[in-house]
Design the sequence.
């Protein structure tokens, strides 16, 4: 399969799964989340959708670049391991919304986010070894999750 088709498939899957995760939290954003005390640096709610859409697009592109290398004998095992880290961090990413918004477990969401951050870093490091661009394109993601970790910790503190 050509790389462009892998990119289209991977971006589509990341956007759909990320979107489904976001849709599941909409009612909580309008109710429970609205009632929480938030720090002064809390971004407006409208920013989260475009930010996550961009990040899921970057994740899909990065994943497709590594998926493409899975077929190459010299990087097959390295690529398989990198994909495992990616899948773990992606599942953790999707779970966070449910833990925070649906279950209202802010402290647990913070702990889960710290674990997510570690797996994003491991994914970046493994992707970078295989395809430098695939690692670099995930840097905005870890920066956003770093900010979201600070935001979650602040919300926990204020509530």
Sequence:
């Amino acid at each position: 399969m050509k790389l462009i088709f892998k990119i289209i498939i991977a971006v589509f899957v990341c956007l759909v799964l990320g979107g489904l995760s976001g849709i599941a939290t909409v009612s909580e954003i309008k109710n429970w989340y609205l009632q929480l005390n938030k720090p002064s640096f809390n971004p407006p709610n409208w920013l989260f959708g475009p930010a996550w859409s961009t990040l899921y697009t970057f994740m899909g592109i990065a994943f497709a670049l590594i998926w493409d290398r899975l077929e190459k004998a010299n990087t097959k095992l390295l690529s398989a391991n990198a994909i495992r880290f990616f899948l773990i961090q992606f599942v953790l990413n999707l779970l966070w919304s449910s833990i925070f918004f649906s279950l209202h477990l802010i402290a647990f969401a913070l702990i889960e986010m710290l674990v997510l951050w570690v797996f994003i870093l491991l994914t970046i490091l493994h992707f970078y070894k295989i395809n430098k661009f695939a690692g670099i394109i995930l840097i905005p993601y870890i920066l956003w999750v770093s900010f979201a970790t600070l935001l979650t910790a602040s919300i926990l503190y204020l509530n």
Observations:
- The chain has a mean pLDDT of 94.
- The chain is about 85% helix and 0% strand.
